[in-house]
Amino acid sequence: MREGKNGNTYVAGIDIGSVASKAVIMDEDKNVISYVAMPGNPSEDSARIVFDRALEQKGLSPEYIVYIVGTGYGRVNVPFADRVWTEIRCHTVGVHHLFPSVRTVIDIGGQDCKVIKVKDGKVEHFAMNDKCAAGTGRYLEVMEGVLGVEFSKWGEMVAKAKGAVSISSTCTVFAETEVISKITQRVPVDEIIAGICEAIAYRVGQLANRVQPEPDFCLTGGVAYNRGVVLKLSNFLGADLLIAEAAQSTGALGAALIALDSRTLPEN
Ligand code: ADP
Fold it and tell me: What is the pTM of this model?
C-alpha cells in the first residue's frame, strides 16, 4: 500500500470534461478535503491547473497524493494519473457513495448526455448521446448567450412562466435561429426559457426511456445547477431528482473513490 508524505495519505480524482475541469482530493476516510471546478478545454494544461488548484486549497504538495484516477472526455490528457476510467463508471461510483438508493443516473455535461441504469452500485447498462449538442450544456450556453439571461435566473423564470414555446429544431444552430425569431416576435422571455428547458427535458427523457429508468433518479454534471432544466426534467420523468451540492464534481468524486480502492493494489 502506498503512503503519502509524513504518513499523510490522500488520493485525487480528476475529471477533464469537454467544457470544464474538476478535481477532488480525498483522505483515507473518504472525506473530500478539497474540490475545484473550473471552465477549461480538455487539455493537459487544464488537468495540471485544476490539480494544482485543488492542492493549493489545502496547502498540499503532490507528494501527499498516493494515487490519481483520471476520467472525463479528456482523460487521455491526464498523463500524471495512475489510471484512467470512463465517466460512466466514475459517475456511478460517485452517485452510489452519495445516494445508495439511486437506480438511474442522468449526467448532462457540456457536450454529451448519458443515462446509466445502476444495480448494487454497478453499471447495469447505459445510453448516451454524444453526436449532437442538443440536449447538452453547450446548447444551453448558446441559449444563455442569445437571451442574455444568466442561468441563475432560469429556475424562477421557468416556475413562473405562463406557458412554454415549442422549439422544434433539434439542431442547436437552427434552434438558436428559432429563439432569435421568438425574441423578435416579443414572446415573453420566461416562456422562451421554459420552452428551451422543455426541449432539453424531452431529449434527455427520450434517452432515459432507452434504459427503462427506475427511481431513485440522480442528476449529475454542471447542468444539474440549472433549476429550469431540473424542473422540466423532473416533470417529464414524473419523479424528483436527487442532486448533490457539488453535482458537477460527481465524476471526479467517483474517480477519487476508485483511487482510494486502487491504492492498495500491488504496484507492478
Ligand atoms: P463536461 O464534464 O462535459 O465538461 P460539465 O458536467 O462540467 O460538463 O457541465 C458543463 C455544463 O454545465 C455547462 O455547459 C453549463 O451548461 C452547465 N453549468 C455549469 N455551471 C452552471 C451553473 N452555475 N448554472 C447552470 N448551469 C451550469
Answer: 0.95
